[in-house]
Design a protein that fits this description.
By secondary structure, this protein is α/β, with parallel strands linked by helices. Helix content is 38%, strand content 20%. The protein is built from nine helices and ten strands. Strand 4, helix 6 (123-133) and strand 5 form a beta-alpha-beta unit. The longest helix is centred in the C-terminal third of the chain and has 15 residues, at 165-179. The protein is globular and about 50 Å long.
């Protein structure tokens, strides 16, 4: 059973405090973790299809849709014809870093950890978020654009087609290997069911305002307040 060590802060299977400097890598999900929105839902709002798309997103994040890739393809298909200007507007008007994210990322960087963004979202946003936070690595999906509009498809990448839960796990394990560290020295932070595979291989898993499936698994679950509350446990 998880133990509530402060209001809205739960631990399971760990004894605080942990030393942040004992870890070498921290991997973050983006949508609803580093940032306050699900980008695909906000783009869909521009197409007048938010209800349709967000219903699929919600079911996927709760783990009710087991084929994440299929769920994402279905959502992206509904974005066909959305102009790039709508994505610019989502970034400018709706996207904010979640509370405590900057403080937690900076604490990780100060302790010498490498930082990885691994997202089932889109490079249009992840490239900007990576730059804003000064993150080391990022992998996410690429929306296909023709004549300034979304085609409703994603672009296949040299490593594969879509970042799903399995790809998040693979990337975390691959970066650990390239860094010459054990996955035990990695922290994984996420909120949705597709984050569970990477959270399961990391030495420390942090759920940030997670869906029920994540709250049940995370070693540290932040259910109220900002991401910097992780620093209560990590010194």
């Amino acid at each position: 059973m998880p133990q509530e060590i402060e209001p809205g802060l739960f631990i399971r299977g760990l004894t605080p405090p942990l030393r942040l400097g004992d870890f070498k890598l921290v991997a973050f999900d983006m949508d609803s973790t580093l940032i306050n929105i699900e980008c695909v839902d906000e783009i869909a709002a521009a197409a007048g299809r938010k209800a349709e798309v967000s219903a699929i997103t919600e079911a996927a994040m709760r783990g009710e849709i087991t084929d994440y890739k299929d769920s994402l393809r279905r959502r992206v298909a509904l974005l066909k014809g959305v102009p790039l200007s709508a994505l610019e507007a989502v970034y400018a008007d709706h996207l904010e870093l979640n509370p405590g994210v900057e403080a937690f990322v900076q604490a990780c960087q100060a302790a010498g950890l490498k930082t990885l963004l691994v997202s089932g979202g889109f490079t249009f946003f992840s490239d900007r978020v990576r730059q804003r936070l000064g993150l080391d690595f990022a992998r996410s999906n690429v929306l296909e654009v023709e004549d300034g509009q979304l085609t409703g498809r994603m672009v296949d990448r040299p490593w594969g087609d879509i970042v799903d839960g399995a790809e998040k796990r693979r990337v975390v394990l691959e970066v650990c290997e390239l860094m010459g560290i054990s996955p035990e020295q990695a922290i994984a932070v996420g909120d949705g069911a597709n984050d569970l595979p990477m959270m399961s291989v990391a030495g420390l898993s942090i759920g940030f305002h997670g869906k029920p499936a994540v709250r049940e698994e995370a070693m540290l679950s932040i259910e109220a307040g900002g991401m910097d509350r992780a620093l209560t446990v990590l010194r």
